[in-house]
Amino acid sequence: LPHPGETPAHIGGTTLFGDNVEDEWFIVYLVREITREFPGLAARIDDNDGEFLLIEAADFLPKWLNPENSENRVFFYKGELHIIPLSEPPEQDWDLSAPCPTIPQALALLSSRSEEFLAAEPIRAAVNKRLDGYPEKMEASLHRARCFLPAGIAAVLRQRPSLVAAAVQAFYLRDPADLRACRRPFRTFPAEQRVMALVTFTRCLYAQLVQQKFVPDRRSGYTLPSPSHPQYRAYELGMKLAHGFEILCSKSSKAAPDAKRNVLSGPLWERFLRSLKEKDYFKGEMEGSAKYLELLHMAEDHFQQSVATPESSVEVSPGDEILTLLQTTSIDLKELEREAACLPPEDDDSWLDITPDALDQMLKEARNESLPSTNEEQEKYDLETVAESMKAFVSKVSSHEGAEMPWSSDESHVTFDVDSFTKALDRILGADSEELDSDDLDEEEEFDFSDGDDEDLDAGNQRQDQKVSPEELVGSLKSYMNEMDRELAQTNVGKSFTTQKRGASSVEAATSASAGPDSGAEDAELAPVDVDMNLVANLLESYSAQAGLAGPTSNILQSMGLYLPENTDLTGSSSRATQ
User: Which parts of the sequence are annotated with region: Disordered (predicted)?
Assistant: First the structure.
């Protein structure tokens, strides 16, 4: 029995699900059903991403719950998801730095107050939606395909169909060292005796095998027919599977007769042998005597089984299992050929191809949104809305945890008070917000930007600790803006922006003429920039560059419920939309 405060007796395990996320969720389904069948059990489950159950329900989690404080808080109990909250101090002032509960503490709370810790309905619904359809969904995720295989592999898969996963993984994750076993005639599965067989994959394994481009080495004995051959796909799949099985067998300890010799020649064995001698394991026997050699062989066997491969007595490698099956299974080639003559049809693999519209529909369903039609998208398409949405996103104040979208399609629209914004600019800049040009700023408060000397620098340093009045601050800001405008007026930077089209009155024209030609040229260069028009033009240009794929523009706008219409003219849509 465990001591007080320790983790109580339990059953645990680790599963390698690879790239097939459906396998992971099937395990979650099994764990949930176990706690439903045995109400006294509580179970927690996580993966390399942490509490992935919370990730699935991220849109509905309470604000206090984050990856730092979620450990030992999420459990399946009596078939339902439970979340143990933080302790509740007065006035609900959550202490986000509170330590996570221990397993005994969490189990004690679940057993006594489980009703209080039942996860909110939206959270449970999000997780249960992911689990809907099991276990029937697993049958739908299988794919049966014909493969032209060596007879030995066909016989092995009849005994252990699950070994196909290890073979696909070995081929999919192969490296140059693995392929050394495939650059010679195959020792375990030669290409001479091959038969057609129906192999069952998961869809993930089948996709990994099909999508891999691979040309076999001529020395291996495996050749492929022309791609136009009706059985080309079966030949290709069989060749890839044969390479995977051969790689597994080449790594087996049974396939390496000198493996023991290699283990007993390393520094670890030398330290082990030296330790035996220091502890008088050989009992004073002369080195090389019969008794000495007997004790030495016993030590070698113990080292190899218990030290070099401590899990060898529990876990058998796929390569060892394949070789064992080949030794204990009789291969009847004629029977395999008779079965090949009446194989059932293979499954259709059209599910490998997905259109962009189907992908959008899948993403919409994952977000519980309906996919609007093309006409609806065009009706909702408004350049002003796009510009306001992007400005709202940029203006959104975010925390150190990352940027948040100002609104979603289900939330209310962000309000933007133009008058308040204009007044705020007036207070800061002292200018009309519609024309924030250097000509509108007071020249009498200009700052002299002559070359400063050491005395000016010292004086500036002395004034750093002094309080600056608002009037001085505004004057400095205007001076900086005046100087920047003068510098930019001598460049072509302004020509890269779209400017507002405005007409000057006769009084303004006369004033400009009296100020001299330089002033008129500067005023022409410093025409107000149309911010909204430049923003929309840049967004459309970025969206056009995506060429129908995902990109920053579509991702940000769609997160705020805005969908740009399909670009029917990739060469001129951006320029036409901005005119």
Answer: 432-472, 492-525
